[in-house]
């Protein structure tokens, strides 16, 4: 007797193996920690990060391979992106000797908001040297900026003076060195000549500007050498004075310099009609020079 049996077999197919990666953009030079979520397949899963450290993935294109317990596999491609790096360019790189400049700069933030930490410096008054600043964008990405400013050479000035004699026949020549040639000169009497010719007794201020638009000033005092040496009038110049005070007074007169509180600062005797007194060590302020019973006041810068 033949017996026939019908048998049916059913196979349960797991859901499709799917991997999904979420990863945030990072600041330039930093790494990311992707978040992986796996759906379907059969646990446990084996994850191959293909050489990457899942806690520190560098910027760029990457792929992982997921294998489930039944050796079903799937590949997941992902990208770690970097936020754009803010571009900072400063437009001036030199500063005049012993002066400050206002920093001129451009920022390309690619539409992001940002703040600049000037490191307690004033960008409106920067000196020569290195200055370190920091830019922080809306993603808290930071960029250190080194602004280097070179100092232009100092403009050094000296004068050659031909004193007047009974009229407007004196002259002043400014000897210029340093800075960046060529130079221009302008006197406070409106002249642009060097030397300044046909001038009488008086004080003349010259402003010299070099090719880098840096400037320096010097004052020259022209005297009239026809003055009678027996004239007891005290003549001082320059006034205000920085280092050396020129005294026009007949020879053989004793002089004394006092501060405004009456303390004797210096004394001496004139040995010619024109004497030079070194006051470079004096503090800034007003002083009185006494000759017998006469006096004159000068200001030390």
Decide which structural class fits the backbone: mainly beta
CATH class of the largest domain: Mainly Beta
Our Rg estimate from Cα atoms comes to: 41 Å
- Spatial sequence of strands, sheet with the most strands: 7-11-10-9
Oligomeric state as shown: single chain
Number of helices: 0
As residue ranges, the low-confidence spans are none
Strand content: over 45%
CATH architecture of the largest domain: Sandwich
Q: What is the total number of structural domains?
A: 4
Topology order in helix (H) and strand (E) letters = EEEEEEEEEEEEEEEEEEEEEEEE
Helix content: under 10%
Shape: rod-shaped
How far apart are the termini? 135 Å
Mean pLDDT: 90
Explain how this protein is built:
With 301 residues, the protein is mainly β. The chain has four domains: 18-80; 87-151; 153-226, Sandwich (Immunoglobulin-like); 227-301, Immunoglobulin-like (Sandwich). Helices cover 0% and strands 47% of the residues. The protein has strands at 18-22, 35-39, 46-48, 60-67, 73-80, 87-90, 94-95, 105-108, 114-117, 129-137, 142-151, 155-162, 170-178, 184-187, 196-199, 202-209, 215-222, 235-237, 244-248, 254-259, 264-269, 274-278, 285-291, 294-300. The strands form eight sheets. Strands 7-11-10-9 form a four-stranded mixed beta sheet, with no helix packed on it. The radius of gyration is 41 Å and the shape is rod-shaped. The protein starts with 17 loop residues before the first strand and ends with a strand. The mean pLDDT is 90.
Task: Give a short synopsis of this structure.
This protein is mainly beta.
């Amino acid at each position: 007797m033949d017996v026939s049996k019908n048998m049916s077999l059913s196979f349960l197919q797991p859901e499709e193996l799917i991997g999904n990666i979420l990863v945030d953009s990072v600041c330039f030079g930093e790494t990311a920690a992707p978040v992986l979520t796996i759906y379907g397949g059969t646990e446990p899963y084996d994850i191959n990060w293909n050489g990457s450290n899942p806690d520190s993935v560098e910027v760029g294109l990457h792929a992982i391979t997921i294998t489930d317990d039944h050796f079903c596999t799937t590949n997941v491609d992902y990208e770690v992106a970097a936020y754009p790096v803010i571009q900072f360019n400063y437009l001036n790189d030199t500063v005049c000797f012993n002066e400050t400049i206002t920093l001129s700069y451009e920022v390309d933030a690619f539409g992001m908001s940002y703040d600049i930490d000037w490191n307690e410096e004033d960008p409106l008054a920067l000196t020569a040297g290195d200055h370190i600043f920091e830019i922080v964008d809306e993603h808290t990405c930071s960029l250190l900026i080194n602004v280097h400013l070179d100092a232009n050479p100092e403009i050094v000035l000296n004068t050659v003076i031909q004193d007047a004699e009974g009229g407007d026949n004196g002259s002043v020549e400014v000897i210029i060195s340093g800075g960046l040639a060529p130079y221009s000169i302008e006197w406070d009497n409106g002249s642009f000549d060097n030397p300044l010719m046909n001038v009488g007794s008086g004080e003349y201020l010259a402003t010299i500007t070099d090719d880098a638009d840096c400037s320096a000033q010097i004052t020259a005092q022209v005297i009239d050498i026809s003055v009678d040496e027996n004239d007891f009038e005290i003549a001082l110049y320059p006034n205000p004075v920085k280092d050396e005070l020129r005294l026009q007074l007949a020879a053989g007169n004793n002089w004394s310099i006092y501060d405004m509180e009456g303390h004797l600062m210096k004394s001496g005797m004139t040995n010619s009609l024109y004497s030079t007194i070194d006051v470079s060590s004096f503090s800034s302020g007003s002083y009185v020079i006494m000759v017998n019973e006469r006096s004159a006041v000068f200001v030390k810068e």
